[in-house]
Amino acid sequence: MASTMRPLVQLVGRASRSTFPSVERNILRKIPSQNAFLSLRTTQSAYTSTFRHNGLSSPRAFSTTPLRARARTMGQLKARNATGPFSWKAALLFVITGGAMIIYFRVEKERLARKRIAELSKGVGRPKVGGPFVLKDLSGNVFTEEDLKGKYSFVYFGFTHCPDICPDELDKMAEIINNVKEATKGENVFLPVFVTCDPVRDTPEVLRSYLQEFHGGIVGLTGTYEQVKHMCKQYRVYFSTPQNVNPGEDYLVDHSIYFYLMDPEGDFVECIGRQDTPESATKVIMEHINDWKREGKPLKKH
Amino acid sequence: MGWLPWSSDSKNSASDGGRIAPDRSSRQKCWEGRDLFFTCLDDNNILDAIKDDQEARRKCGKEIGEFESACAKAWVKYFKEKRVMEYNRDKTIERIKKEDAAKVQDLKAQGWTPR
């Protein structure tokens, strides 16, 4: 975008530079050709009168000449260049360029801020959210961090016996999935994932019917108690599932209630929390997806 | 309470051994029961339905019955605790706001102007 801006700036510069000299040249050309006779006569009379009055030939005496000549040409100038050097073209160009530059700088500033956030979790010595894990999807296939790569993934932790927050958040997730799908024109670049924190009760069958109520596109993941605990640790999720519960005993699981947005390389980008609406979350996600595309990085679309 | 999918041992298991969680409609039913019960508690000036269990049962017997039959045990406890927690949270926020306002008033009296 920077390269397209430069010619525009030069164009404006050239336009304004060329307007002024042409006007000056016009004035200069006018005076000698059309008013040569007139000015010559007035100069002579003015010269004689001042000489007679003051007995001095000061250059100031000649000031009347160009004045009258200018008055004559000013009328013509006015008619010819009613708008002066500031023609509507120049004004329009100025406004468009100014506006474009303001918009450009704002967009670029926001993009860089996002890039900074996205790159916070890249490189060595960064606090790491996410990482290797081994779980199973609802068909019983092994699902690891490799399966998240290539798309923007959206990871949520929960459990089906969650009283009020998870259902709310999953409804939000469903809305976000649809919004992103719409915004990417149906491209399959967004992978919503639900990881259960409660693998004892949330078996694949339970999880499938539970997630189906919210959105058919959510990938449900489960595993052994140890696998899930490890997954939660990787994502810095508080994990408090009791391990040895008698069958039939009712319990709740405390867990973090953030959505984790992970980029196609499997690095943490941002988290979406309770304060986000489906709209604001979609906006954040789409900005990252579009940044990724603009930088020409690979995305799986199937 | 056996008619609820998750409250009895015979019906609450999926074929693979997991325990089925309440679905959307039973969640809705539970929340409605909760809201009715809490409205009744508000009307009777009861905050903590665990601490003041007897009084709550005496004054809102019908509501608590419906609430407890529509929600799992752990949920009932969770919602009751959450009510107290949210009340205390709101109270704290209000107190801090009041203290802030008083402090501003005090500083203004000493000739300080907010920028």
UniProtKB/TrEMBL annotation, chain A:
GO terms for biological process: cell redox homeostasis; intracellular copper ion homeostasis; mitochondrial respiratory chain complex IV assembly. Cu cation binds at C162, C166, H255. The keyword Heme does not apply. The chain crosses the membrane at residues 86-107. Disulfide bonds join C162-C166. Its main location: mitochondrion. It is found in: Mitochondrion inner membrane. It comes from the Eukaryota. Keywords: Copper, Disulfide bond, Membrane, Metal-binding, Mitochondrion, Mitochondrion inner membrane, Transmembrane, Transmembrane helix. The keyword Membrane applies. GO terms for molecular function: copper chaperone activity; copper ion binding. GO terms for cellular component: mitochondrial inner membrane. Belongs to the SCO1/2 family. This is Mitochondrial metallochaperone Sco1.
From TrEMBL, chain B:
Keywords: Cytoplasm, Disulfide bond, Mitochondrion, Nucleus. One of its GO terms (biological process) is mitochondrial respiratory chain complex IV assembly. GO terms for cellular component: mitochondrial intermembrane space; nucleus. It holds the Pfam family COX6B. Residues 1-27 are annotated as: Disordered. Its main location: cytoplasm. It is found in: Cytoplasm; Mitochondrion intermembrane space; Nucleus. It comes from the Eukaryota. InterPro entries: COA6_fun (IPR048281), COX6B-like (IPR048280), CX6/COA6-like_sf (IPR036549). PANTHER family: CYTOCHROME C OXIDASE ASSEMBLY FACTOR 6. Belongs to the cytochrome c oxidase subunit 6B family. This is Cytochrome oxidase c subunit VIb-domain-containing protein.
